[in-house]
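does this look right to u?? inosinic acid version
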Amino acid sequence: MHQSMNILLTREEIAAAVARMGKQISEDFTGQSVVLIGVLKGACLFLSDLARQIHLNATFDFIAVRSYGTKKTTAGEVQLIKDVTTPLRDQNVILVEDILDTGLTLTFLRKHLQQHQPRSMKIAALLDKPSRRKVPVEADYVGFKVPDQFVVGYGLDFNEHYRNLPDICVLEEGEQE
Ligand code: IMP
Ligand code: MG
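got this back:
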């Protein structure tokens, strides 16, 4: 199955990028605490590694959305299916997402979480596909900018599969539907 996939980013490259992002976050929030909010399910692996590279007082929460579209892209409407339970008022929130693609998901989540009146809100995205953006949103911390190819692994899925691959791979055309 996945043997025929081409590796785009190795586990070593991912670990180096995650360490760099954690170091930057630790420096930016020195002396403060942060709440990491992972977008289920894709950001789970990234959040668990990123959290261990953040040397601050940190707590976690998770949020989940459903987006309508094909198996590969967000069409337009994003719906909340699981909200956070942590009080976010006056907290430094870091929204942790696997990939920033059209931007519809993070635009929706940023607006939703702003209602909780956090002190600050930043976005950490492991991957960024800037060429696919439909709405203007940028991440504050980005692991890698990637071309317009569908990728899986390290939390990213195709139809719920491949999240457990340790490397990030390009899903070949023949395997897509
Ligand atoms: P956006 O709302 O279009 O920015 O989409 C973000 C969501 O789309 C991510 O959380 C992923 O679940 C999914 N997504 C976008 N591109 C890819 C990809 O290349 N592989 C796997 N999932 C993707
Ligand atoms: Mg997904």
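The longest helix spans residues 11-28. idk if thats expected tbh
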